[in-house]
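pipeline stage [seq->struct] | target=ATP synthase subunit delta | organism=Ureibacillus suwonensis | residues=180
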Amino acid sequence: MSNYTVAKRYAEALFSVAQKQNVVDEVNQDLQEIAKVIKENKDFLTVLTNPKFSSDRKKQIVSELFNGVNPVLLNTLQLLVDKKRVNELTNIAEAFKALAADAQGTAEATVYSTRELTEEEKNNISASFAKLVGKETLNITNVIEPSVIGGVRVQIGNIIFDNTVASKLENLRRTLVVNN
């Protein structure tokens, strides 16, 4: 079973419990913060996966560090320690975020552009592209990428809408090479 499949199962279980207790947003925020901590501090994950520490000691560390998080999430973190799946936390956070967004009728989108987009531009892109993928809105992450030359490339899950000058030039180049 792939790691993503495992992470998705844990995320679905956590989401189900959080939804029943009406704490999806709170759990999502806490989980995203924990994932951020893990990404920025690799030593933390090393401690939680180190076989020299007992499972009880690891759970104690988790309880002390994350005593302010929602109890549902804290229980999940301790379960992950018991099952030796703590290294899946960032994947679980990503899958949980997608489940929460889907339940709210939103989707995550990455927009590549040559400059930072204004809020109005983000709202226009969200309104236009959300309809194409059957969502109400998009949560847009803007990535500055000078190689696009102009225009934007929008990625929503596995779907890519490429309206960049770079892609148009590449298409023109292919057309010219084929015709000659």
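stage status: PASS
auto-comment: Strands lie at 106-113, 137-144, 151-156, 159-164. The longest strand covers residues 106-113.
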